[in-house]
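Task card 7
Instruction: Convert sequence to structure tokens.
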Amino acid sequence: MTDKKLCVGKISGVYGIKGWVKVHSYTGDRENILKYSPWRLQKDKQLKILNVITGRKQGKTIVVSLEGIENRNDAELLAGWDVFIGSEQLPKIEHGEYYWADLVGLKVVTTDGIDLGVVDYLIETGANDVFVVAGDKERLIPFLQQQTIIKIDLEEGLMIVDWDPDF
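Output:
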């Protein structure tokens, strides 16, 4: 995996008077966002790098104490900032497993060599994930390794699929 910036959440507001912020987490398990530090906060062209001191689940959101943010006024200034981490902060994964961020942008080609486009994004459906391929038309292809997904080559930026291009 190349070192990429990954958006894992957004600061949605403040919590209390001691500088804590509310965070809408994009991680699979909302609390996983607390495992990553430092956070690279970005809004427009502004960038701040802040360490996570502590945090916890609070209802449907996550509340976090960040280094250097010690009162409500400081916390209010962070509302609306996106939370990024570097891909190097993610845990290592087993061979044959992939982070979604690694798959976005891969060129998708059928086993017959027909170019379908590129992976635009993925959808979690419960039964299995589905990737959306943007090309001459949008295609939704189930992410079933060794069935619809024949090969993934991250170095080549290529995914080979067993898929009817007319579907």
